[in-house]
Amino acid sequence: MKDLFNRNLLRIREEQKPQTFAQALFGAVDWGHGIPKAPFPKENISSPAFEFSEKVQVLESLERFAKEKFEEEKKTILKIPGGEIQLKEDPTWDGVETFSNFADLKNTLSLDQQTLEICFASKNSTQVKVMFVSESFRNYEDYAQELKDSFLNQLLPAFPLKTAEFFSRMIAAMKLVESEIIIYPTAFGDKDLTNEALGVAAFYRPEVILTLGATPSHKILKIQDRLSQIHGQFFQRKLSDDTNFLVVPLFHPSIIETNQNMKKTAWMDMQKIMKQLKKL
Description:
Largest sheet: 6 strands, mixed
Oligomer: single chain
Number of helices: 12
Shape: globular
Structural class: alpha/beta
CATH superfamily of the largest domain: Uracil-DNA glycosylase-like domain
Strand content: 5-15%
Distance between the termini: 32 Å
CATH architecture of the largest domain: 3-Layer(aba) Sandwich
CATH topology of the largest domain: Uracil-DNA Glycosylase, subunit E
CATH class of the largest domain: Alpha Beta
Number of strands: 10
Number of domains: 2
Strand order of the largest sheet: 3-9-10-8-4-5
């Protein structure tokens, strides 16, 4: 693989007729055909068609090559013809307060008591598999009239009623049940709750943290990459005590709700998460 990679790097530097990014690295490849996916199993969500990106495929191949060499040579800098690749350490969640019992955790949280009761209803630290992190929560008074006797209540602090109903269908399509998920914001009013959200994650230890939209993705991942470039990817993050978490950034449900193409992309991302959770 190293020889192939080096040869194609040299080929890129030669004068040649215009060609695709993938062809420049790997020669002629037949990657242009879509791969059909399974239809979305819930109402109002369309069957997706695979949308191929040559650039993503090439970068993923480069990433795999680099990871293999880093592990093999036990170095943080990899020399390649014409340059080098440096191993970048994942950010650590520093300054996050952790708790061994829920009462202590709850006393540090900034949300109003009514909202806290709704968010943490029926949650057990041994059962939570997924933590959704939203950008912000509404005041209790803003959604109180929309409350119903159902799981939907736990989504109403984060979303207007219509979006909450749509998102509940997405959750059901992922084969997740109420006891397996929890949701918390990175902001409430003008207060930043990022460390509170991480503290909630530290207590419940979900198998995966799903950030909804650009702002919570940037805050939780501690990077500023465009969401369009990182959505659906798995990132490793850890607390200062070396406790590891998987984080996957997703598009916000309000964007997915009204855009047919975004629904296709969202379902592809959701399938990756379902596979990780062994629900697919």
